[in-house]
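Support reply, case 0932

Customer input (verbatim):
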Amino acid sequence: MGSQRVALMMRPITAVIRSILIGTVLITMALLFSPQRAEAMPMFARKYHLKCEQCHTIMPRLTNFGYAFYRAGFRLPGHKKYPLTFSNSASLMTEMMFTNSNPAGNTGFDMSDTEIQVLTAIGEHFSTHLHYVFPGSTNGAEIHQAWVQYNTAPTGAFWSFRAGQFSPIIGFRFGGDRNWTITDAQLYGTLPGQERGVDVGYTDKGLTTHLSWLNGVDASAVDAIGSGRQALSGHRAQDYMLQSEYEIGKLGSSIGGLYYHGVIPGGGVYPYTTTSDIFNRSAIYGNWATVLKSGSTPGIPDLSLDINGGALWGHDDGGSGPTGNTYGSLLELDLNYKHRSALAMRYDNLNGTGQPTIEEYTFDAAHLINNHVLLRLEYNKIRKPSADQFTADLWFFY
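Our regenerated output:
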């Protein structure tokens, strides 16, 4: 999934007012100085001469067209051959963030990691994605994604075979790093992120189904309700995930679900036993999309509305010890203007056995300023425990 969660804290009323004023100034500047045209993720803009609005509502959230392009291995219909060069295959990205967090009252700027991504189709059947993150203020250097995929056909109905390090949740709106808000919903943290393994998928019109065989999560980074990072070394191929999704109509509605089964050798994670921990995650999710006002360009409405929802259930078994359960849900409303600007409102919650219930409200605004800059503003309010935060984020890409 590309967003980062920072410390969640409460703030006094004066800090809230200050955050609102800063946010108003930033978004006003963006609207005043924004050009009338923007392009797609730079390497695809250079290669296919596409507008960003064609594939995204707000990056990285995909449209139907963009999702079909992704599933086909970064190919457009028509089987036209395009030259394979570094310029039309690679993009460089970095991020600058301003955060006002309380009750500690921390306010400051941060430069996030700089990263390079190489995404390209190779011939009519192969495609690849390399995502490398350079050392930054938040994380060290790492390979985020590195995989090769083979499709039995360039477009239409086909089987796909993927191997390497990737996000096993290959979703339209719910997963696959498709969330565009700065802060992720709580339930995303209960699902493994990037993992190493193999994946077999089938695509036919609106249906996409995947079965992944994976290394699993790293016990050193797993908390008591099962969230964690990928296991890049150590135990091998003990996890699997089944995911299926179906797109409804041509406006962006869909429904889907997934099941993840994981094993953490050695235990000691939840509920603190010395035998192997086993955790299971099941989720259903969907979104309803409609056009409120059509635009002059096909596939890019002037005004559209998305309602996204999901629920997750988890069961953790500590071997000879007691068991625990996890539950989370989210409901999000997105209002999109010409696939250039968007507003989002989201409620989500998460609770687990022996863990405090967490409830939060998140309000986001985003605007694509020009071909290379995306502005995002967010106010995140935690009710349980009481905390809040304001964040302004500039995402630069070339």
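We compared this against your earlier run and they match. Two observations from our side: The chain has one domain: 13-397. The longest strand covers residues 277-293. Please reopen the case if you see a mismatch on your end.
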